[in-house]
Write a structure and sequence with these properties.
792 residues, alpha+beta, eight-stranded mixed sheet, 27 strands, 48% helix, 18% strand
């Protein structure tokens, strides 16, 4: 059967390495509570400093309502539902128009927000919005803005000093100090070609010693920032109420911004509505001026003819024909006006850089629904394009999209107007045909009557056209005068609640979280990265090999603890280990191999003291120093290492001659001897097995001290000769991977009859173990201090 399936310990490095001993983490937190407390104190202090000196941010909001069109068929429809002033409005575009750069830049320029004054404290710098009794203008010249930061020192109530906060670099002259300015209040100061005027509107005695910073900003960049911070949303779906909000460090400044924004947006809406009526009125005035001159000439001609022919009167037939012609001419007049508007549209739409708002067709009586709708859409796109500005100025990606829409719509309108023009030409041809028939009837009249009818017809045509245009002009003038904005303020701008940033309570909660969390995370990371054995639970998680006992920490340089200090706690630990051997080796005489994973785990120390405690109990014991690479035991027992195991295995001496007697009764030792060049090969010889068999005849217990099993394979060769294997592990020293390898060797049958001794226990507490006892269990909670032990 596959050992990995029978024993899940083989999969340690796929599963167990991810385990964290939470008891140890909490123990470290409790043990190092002062570090956790210090971390919390530091975090809370940082939170206090942040809350104290961070820039305060406030939220300001306002609400407006955009009135919808009046329903048709009501009274005063001419005034309140005139298509000249109630043009097409796409409500979905209104939030974008409000946030458009031209409107916001106009707000910024109106309020003078491109100029800011800051007061500098020892730690924090704050904006002094409208706090100083001064007004600064002149930082804009055309479309250009003065940009820069200056130290602003008020020298007196008459004079001030400006020092730019920049260093000019010149390759030829090196580093140059920027130009400084001494200016007079209420007098123009030229700064880089900008005529800056700083007006004093009150006394400045309280500001002579203040550290002030005067900042001029680019209005276009500032408009971009405000547009990004401004939020404009419909109150709810289907509603015509817009909610506007903005966050800033100076609540009064943001309140002024929203109020001015509403004011300018309202005026913008009013101007757009008036523009249509004004353009229509101007167009009609041009037509009237031409017709008025022609009508005056005809009127004078009619008066002269009547003066010269006082006896001429129109007969019944002439009046009948004239009346019919007059009716037809009235109809024809309307088509003439339409044709004039068509020509205007052709000229307007063929202009590649159209910017002015188009005259609406209803102003001249053209009520075709298709053309009216298309031109209303064109008007709406023109307004959007005007709000966005040109691509080169704003670098707005929507500019090209709007331009494409306008071009497509312009082509559609041109085609629609051509279709209307073709239809009107057919109608005009029919009217002209009827007029020609009536004119042939006029030819039968007397000469004088025929001349009078001709002059009268010309006058009536001009008069009808003049009356028609006068009526339309009056409608346009009434519309212009009666225009009102659709924008109404619902809630004026005001601050919402208190400070939104920094959130004091949240800052302290975050500080507490990190104050506790960072140390805990560090402890957890330290636990996660620690690959050494810490406790019995660590051993039991990795391997199924039983633990025979535990051995405490020894600070004494004398390693003969059992012999020299038989009443010490350390001696009691080895007595407990000796007692527990009875459960694993049920023989009076036995051979035991003592090994470990790596050097330094206390293998020789354990061998020496375990041999001492067995010898003291009356068992004739011998230690075989099979670790011929680094022999140590002879030093602790103050013996020579000139002849030892290496000499015997190499055939230089007999086995009896390598046995040395120690100062402890019943305890002998065979040291490793001089280090041979091939210690591994020597242990494989039959002489070693012969030695073991010979020693078993003389001694009750054979303790074989082998090299670490994780470094060389010598110990595996000896394992077949022993009754039991004692595997030494050391707290916070033995790698967990070594125990996984040990379990793998056991599963593969390379080692058997094995137990683990947990050595050098000096850490205790939750996750490590409790107390220090005498026997099987956790007996490692004390360290030696002088003649006794103390709790760690």
């Amino acid at each position: 059967m596959n050992a990995s399936k029978d024993n899940p310990k083989d999969n340690y490095f796929e599963e167990e390495t991810s385990l964290i001993n939470y008891k140890r983490i909490w123990y470290r937190i409790l043990r190092y509570w002062y570090l956790v407390g210090l971390a919390v104190l530091i975090a809370l202090s940082l939170a206090f400093i942040y809350n104290r000196y961070a820039t305060k941010v406030y939220s300001v909001s306002a609400s407006i309502i955009i009135k919808e069109k009046e329903e048709s068929g009501q009274m005063a429809e001419l005034l309140y539902n005139n298509p000249l002033v109630n043009a097409y409005r796409n409500f979905l575009n209104e939030p974008y128009i409000i946030k458009s750069y031209p409107i916001i830049q106009q707000v910024i320029d109106s309020l003078g927000l491109t100029v800011s004054i800051y007061g500098e404290g020892k730690i924090k710098t704050s904006e002094l919005y409208q706090s100083l009794p001064i007004v600064i203008t002149g930082n804009k010249k055309g479309e250009e803005y003065l940009s820069g930061s200056f130290d602003f020192d008020i020298l007196s109530n008459k004079e001030y000093h400006l020092k730019p906060r920049v260093i000019i670099e010149d390759d030829s002259l090196g580093q140059l100090q920027p130009t400084e300015y001494i200016g007079q209040f209420n007098e123009i100061l030229d700064i880089e070609g900008f005529p800056v005027l700083i007006n004093k509107i009150g006394t400045l005695d309280d500001y002579f010693e203040d550290d002030l910073n005067l900042v001029f900003q680019n209005g276009q960049s500032l408009a971009t920032g405000y547009s990004g911070r401004l939020s404009v949303e419909w109150a709810e779906e289907g509603a015509s109420v817009l909610n506007m909000s903005i966050n800033g460090s100076v609540a009064k400044k943001e309140i002024d911004f929203l109020n001015k924004l509403i004011e300018i947006y309202t005026q913008h809406d009013l101007n757009n509505k008036r523009e249509a009526a004004t353009s229509s009125k101007n167009f009609i005035d041009q037509q009237l001026a031409y017709i008025s001159d022609s009508l005056l000439l005809v009127e004078m001609q009619l008066e002269r003819f009547k003066d010269q022919n006082t006896q001429i009167n129109l007969g019944d037939e002439a009046q009948r024909l004239l009346h019919k012609l007059d009716d037809l001419e009235k109809v024809k007049t309307e088509y003439i006006v339409k044709e004039s508007y068509y020509q205007y549209l052709f000229d307007y739409l063929k202009n590649e850089t159209i910017a002015d708002q188009v005259i609406l067709p209803t102003s001249v009586g053209l009520n075709d629904p298709v053309v009216v709708k298309l031109i209303e859409q064109l008007t709406n796109l023109q307004l959007q394009s005007k709000m966005i500005g040109s691509q080169t100025e704003r670098e707005n990606p929507l500019t090209n999209n709007l331009a494409n829409q306008i071009n497509d719509l312009r082509a559609t309108i041109l085609q629609s107007v051509k279709n209307l023009q073709s239809t009107d030409e057919i109608a005009i041809a029919q009217i002209q045909k009827r007029i020609n028939l009536l004119e042939r009837g006029l030819n039968n009249l007397p000469k004088e009557e025929r001349q009078l009818v001709t002059i009268q017809r010309t006058y009536d045509i001009g008069e009808n056209l003049y009356v028609f245009l006068t009526q339309k002009r009056t409608e346009a003038a009434i519309s212009e005068a009666s225009t009102t904005s659709d924008i109404m303020v619902v809630n004026p701008a005001g601050q919402i609640g208190g400070i939104i940033s920094p959130k004091t309570q949240l800052s302290y909660l975050i500080a507490l979280f990190f104050g506790f969390g960072v140390p805990i995370v560090l402890f957890a990371v330290a636990e996660l990265l620690n690959t050494k054995i810490q406790s019995k639970e660590d051993i039991e998680q990795i391997t199924a090999i039983p633990i025979i006992g535990v051995i405490g920490h020894n600070d004494d340089p004398d390693h003969m603890v059992v012999s020299n200090k038989p009443k010490s706690v350390m001696a009691e630990a080895f007595r407990s280990l000796r007692s527990n051997l009875n459960y694993f080796v049920k023989k009076d005489k036995f051979v035991m191999m003592i090994t470990s994973s790596i050097s330094g785990e206390g293998k020789s120390f354990t061998t020496l003291n375990l041999a001492n405690i067995l010898a003291i109990s009356g068992k004739k014991t011998i230690i075989v120093g099979a670790d011929m690479r680094k022999p140590k035991l002879f030093q602790e027992m103050q013996l020579a290492n000139t002849v030892g195991l290496s000499n015997y295995l190499s055939g230089q001496v007999e086995w009896e001659t390598v046995i040395q007697h120690s100062s402890v009764e019943n305890l002998d030792i065979i040291t490793g001897g001089p280090v041979p060049p091939n210690p591994g090969e020597l242990l494989l010889r039959n002489e070693f097995a012969t030695l073991v068999n010979n020693l078993k005849k003389t001694y009750d217990v054979l303790l074989i001290d082998t090299p670490p099993i994780g470094l060389v394979s010598d110990a595996l060769e000896i394992a077949t000769l022993v009754d039991h294997i004692l595997y030494i592990t050391r707290q916070n020293y033995t790698p967990k991977e070594a125990l996984a390898t040990l379990q793998s060797n056991v599963d593969q049958g390379k080692m058997a009859n094995i137990s683990i001794a947990f050595n050098d226990i000096y850490k205790f507490g939750p996750g490590y173990g409790y107390g220090y006892g005498y026997g099987y269990g956790y007996g490692y909670g004390r360290k030696k201090n002088g003649g006794g032990y103390y709790e760690e």
